Amino acid sequence: MRVEERLVTEPPAGDRPAIELRDLARHFGERTALEGVTISVPEGATLAVLGRNGAGKSTLLRILATLLRPHSGQARLFGEELPRNGYAVRGRLGLLAHEPLLYRELSGRENLTYHARLHRVAPERIEQVLQAVAMERRAEDPVRLLSRGMVQRIAVCRAILHDPALLLLDEPRANLDPAASELVEPLIGRGAGRTRVLTSHDPQAALAEADLVLALKDGRPAFVGAPEELSENQLKDLYA
Amino acid sequence: MILRKDLRLELRTLETIPAMVLFSLTTFVIFHFGLNRATIDGQLAAGVLTATLLFAAILGINRLFVAERDQGGFDAFLLAPVDRTAMLFAKAAALFTFLVVLELISVPAFGLLLLGTSLGGPLPGLILVLLLANLGLAVIGTLVSAIAVQTRARDLIGPIIGLPLLIPALIATARAIGPILAPGSSGSPPGKWLAILALYDVVFALLAYAVFDFLLED
Predict the structure, then answer these.
(1) Cβ A170 vs Cβ A128: under 8 Å
(2) DSSP code, position A35
(3) Residue A101 dihedral angles phi and psi, to the nearest 5°
(4) Among A232, B10, B14, B205, fewest CB within 10 Å belongs to which?
(5) Contact between B82 and A118 using a beta-carbon 8 Å cutoff
(6) Quick check: B200 and B132 in contact, CB under 8 A?
(7) Which alpha helices (DSSP H) does A93-147 contain, by range?
(8) What angle do CA A68, A91, A7 make, to 5 degrees?
(9) Using CA atoms, how far apart are residues B49 and B16, in angstroms rounded to an integer?
């Protein structure tokens, strides 16, 4: 039985799937970015997406974030089909991408105020998240004057400001020192109780957090299953 | 909220409006010496004013979505559960505001540098025509800018698509302003050209409303 089929027919225990992908494909011109991706992720679970640079991890995250259309196959989030019903799920998604999605000339607080209005979030929530990442004292500084780690902390605030049910995390701890990583852990870590899709250049760290693993090689699934089922050799082969 | 954010960004960076103003003032100086005439009036004055404002507007149009593309504003907006046409209205309102600020400085400068007649009499009519022209420029400019910003050659694509689409507005504006700036004019613009300009605004506003959603799609 193919690994993709195994997970569709035998989904891990849990509630209804937060994410259902079936034979998902996306191309950029002649290049295949994703092909044959099939997986089901229950609510509250963490999916680690592994693979080398250019394997299709960010493309998958952008499709799940409703920012890219799949060219074929099916994608459902919380039962809503993408991209047709993307509007229905957008408020339930949080994306922490490579780019912080912050305006450099605005302060952290101004950026968060803008996002709070877009997501119809009460202003008190801004103070709450700024305090959580210990950025309230630098919240008035323009983002362009902040260090990369501070920008990443504000980006975390932006991603979870509206308390999303699904967090899409592309290298979430990039630029964060250990102390800052600890600060953001309650917001984006497993303990936050959200469904998470996580990519990381550090496969061991990602595996430690994951309930499910999707390993991509040249846009195609090389492994789908539980983290403990992924052998050392498969992992080595993935990054070879 | 998008408009407020755009105006705040412009106040912080001063990247767009000063460039538009400087361009228009320089162009008036060039016309002043290039035409080798102390003053101009009538249709020639209208043509000079309209063409200068149009090209200055192109500078603003080219920069309208730059922050959204370069700093991830598009993605952040598309991730939010809001109607995508909100961005069309906000960006058009921002461009309209930029054009009004441009004209507040450049029209008096035009009067000083080139115009043979006083601006006092024609001013109410001129304001009416320029407001209608700004509306068309703002709507078309937003549409064109949203297309151009998705391409690698955005600085070229903006004028290449925008200028042909703006020709009807340019003609109607110049023909409406011409009689106002003629010596001995009553100061009221011809109704026919005002109506054409208003019709142009309505048609392109509806068109922009209909297609803008698709422009933001992947």
Answers:
(1) no
(2) E
(3) 55, 45
(4) A232
(5) yes
(6) no
(7) 108-118, 124-132
(8) 60
(9) 19
| Chain centroid offset of residue B31 CA | 20
Q: Which residues contact A95 (CB under 8 A, 6 or more apart)?
A: A61, A65, A67, A101, A159, A167, A168, A170, B75, B79
pLDDT digit string (tens) for chain A, length 240 residues: 344 443 443 444 455 799 999 999 999 988 999 999 999 999 999 999 999 988 899 999 999 999 999 999 999 999 999 888 888 899 899 999 888 999 999 999 999 999 999 999 999 999 999 999 999 999 999 999 999 999 999 999 999 999 999 999 998 888 888 888 888 888 888 877 899 999 987 888 889 989 999 999 999 999 999 999 988 888 888 887
A105 and chain B in contact, CB less than 8 A: yes
Burial per residue of A6-18, b for 16 or more beta-carbon CB atoms within 10 angstroms, e otherwise: ebbeebeeeeebb
CATH class of A3-102+164-238: alpha beta
DSSP 8-state class, residue A34: E
Contact A99 B71 (CB under 8 A): yes
Tokens of B45: 């004055």
Q: In this structure, are residues B198 and B136 in contact, taking their beta carbons and an 8 Å threshold? A: no
Interface test with B, best of A61, A98, A105, A167 (most B CBs within 10 A): A105
Return the H-helix or E-strand segment holding A32.
Answer: strand A31-42
Q: Show Cβ contacts of residue A82 under 8 Å, excluding neighbours closer than 6 positions.
A: A63, A64, A66, A70, A75, A76, A89
Residues of B in contact with A118 (CB under 8 A): 1, 76-77, 80, 82
b/e per residue B27-65 (b: at least 16 CB within 10 A): bbeebbeeeeeeebbbebbbbbbbebbbebbbbbbbbbb
| Residue (of A89, A56, A121, A36) closest to A195 by Cα position | A89
Distance separating alpha carbons of residues A50 and B79, to the nearest angstrom: 24
What is the maximal distance between C-alpha atoms in chain B? 57
- The DSSP-derived string for A163-198 is --SEEEEESTTTT--HHHHHHHHHHHSGGG--EEEE
In this prediction the pTM is 0.86
